[in-house]
Design brief:
Rossmann fold; alpha/beta; about 15% strand
């Protein structure tokens, strides 16, 4: 059985953002492999951040309709729903690990899903937080 991997917002955004072709290729392959193997995991937080980013924060934004359709497609990944225990755990992790609350929530969702790896460029690649290996796929 394959190990589960958590995909952070930036990986999903780069898969659809044409501004950096190298990152788009890497992210697209990672997303497709995660979907086809059934090992990919993300969270409701990530899907929310993805929607806002691709409709408002990238140079060439998606239409709301296309972004909604893409969120529906990405929801085929195993989805961790953010709840109060994850939020409280993120507050503690934020304090303990000295990382942003939002990154702490991502790590908590990955740990809750028993992921072995978290693909993100926002955290220190190579580090291990709460048993999850952080990997920067672009670095």
């Amino acid at each position: 059985m394959n190990d589960s991997v958590f995909l952070d917002t930036n990986v999903l955004v780069y898969a659809f953002d044409r501004d950096d072709e190298r990152k788009q290729v890497v992210a697209s392959k990672l997303v497709q492999a995660s979907l086809s193997s059934g090992t990919g995991v993300t969270s409701t937080q990530v899907l929310q951040e993805f929607f806002v980013t691709v409709t408002k924060k990238v140079r060439v934004s998606m239409s709301v309709t296309d972004a909604r359709r893409t969120v529906e497609d990405l929801a085929r990944l195993r989805l961790v729903e953010i709840d109060l225990p994850l939020i409280l755990g993120a507050i503690d992790r934020h304090h303990r690990c000295k990382i942003s609350f939002w990154d702490a929530l991502i790590v908590g969702a990955a740990a809750a899903a028993r992921c072995t790896s978290l693909f993100s460029e926002d955290l220190a690649g190579g580090s291990v937080l709460d048993g999850v290996q952080i990997i920067n796929p672009f670095g």
